[in-house]
Design a protein that fits this description.
Blueprint: E1 3-7, H1 11-23, E2 27-31, H2 34-44, E3 48-51, H3 60-68, E4 77-80, H4 87-95, E5 98-101, E6 106-108
Parallel strand pairs: 1-2, 1-3, 3-4
Antiparallel strand pairs: 5-6
């Protein structure tokens, strides 16, 4: 069982992801934006963050950048579900730590050991 932090500004999407993960036996914590999610990540220490990209108060890419810059989160896996692959999101993903950016999922690069 993994501890998963789900971040989305749309409560319906958070609920759908939460139900799916809980059915698989995972423990789930929810956050409505990146800023709140970062605080929860520091407190809760999840194994995985699943985040929307387009949100107020830190978007998903800002959240993952902050998490990546925190040495306490070196082993944290991250995924980012998004809406349409709009050019601004694609450009941010290319500058971030992502191998691919698509219409529905962003796959992060593998972390290198420090």
């Amino acid at each position: 069982m993994a501890k998963v932090l789900v971040v989305d500004d749309e409560s319906g999407m958070r609920d759908v992801i939460q139900v799916a993960l809980m059915r698989l036996g995972h423990e789930v914590v929810l956050a409505p934006n990146g800023e709140r999610a970062y605080a929860l990540a520091c407190e809760y220490k999840p194994n995985l963050i699943v985040t929307d990209v387009n949100m107020p108060n830190w978007n998903g890419l800002e959240l993952l950048r902050a998490v990546n810059n925190n040495p306490n989160h070196r082993e944290l896996a991250q995924g980012s579900a998004t809406g349409p692959a709009l050019p601004p999101s694609c450009a941010h993903a290319r500058r971030g730590r992502f191998e691919r950016h698509g219409a529905r999922f962003v796959v992060p690069r593998r972390r290198r050991s420090a």
